[in-house]
Amino acid sequence: MPVRTDPAPQQRTEPRPGTPRRARRRTAATVAALLALGLGLASFLGATLTGGPTEPTAADGRIPDGETVSPFDDSVPSVSRLDPALLAALREAASVVEADGRPLHVTSGWRSAAYQQWLQEDALRTYGSAEEAARWVASAETSAHVTGDAVDVGPYATAEWLSRHGAPFGLCQVYANEVWHIELRPEAPEDGCPELIPDASAAPGAGE
């Protein structure tokens, strides 16, 4: 074969034009914004899927669904932060009820304002309207749970019994649609329990 004697083509050695500095800054800013958006979305999804850092805890007075708490358990804030007079009356009633073979549990007692707000927002999602949600969950500003002046009891059969026989202890059902919601009425042993309020939305101050 003949030997090629012409010089081989030279590789291009000059550098390519660089990316303009302004474009590099714009690209970096875009990447940073996307990263921030991704982190924010991940944080939101984490809060949605796992309850997140704002989900109420026992320190807020939350009692997880399915758990039972004795009205004599002072280690639980939901119980220990109830109004002392209400708690004393509840324990007196519990002693009588349990001696008769009926269990009496606290399903919800004192609640922090943040927990009450969380419940209100959950009720809005559940019922689909603010009007219906207000029938079942009072605002943090008006809820007797936040001040420690209300307790929800279970099981249902015991709550029904207490709604009929709680007056001698000063314990009264307050809302017609919530047999489990009990509040202290000191005059009840003498005068009986007052007339039921239709629901939480009709309570004094609820519309203020």
UniProtKB/TrEMBL annotation:
Gene3D superfamilies: 3.30.1380.10. Residues 81-161 form the D-alanyl-D-alanine carboxypeptidase-like core domain. Residues 1-26, 52-77, 188-208 are annotated as: Disordered. GO terms for molecular function: peptidase activity. One of its GO terms (biological process) is proteolysis. It comes from the Bacteria. InterPro entries: VanY-like_core_dom, Zn_M74/Hedgehog-like. This is M15 family metallopeptidase. It comes from Actinotalea soli.
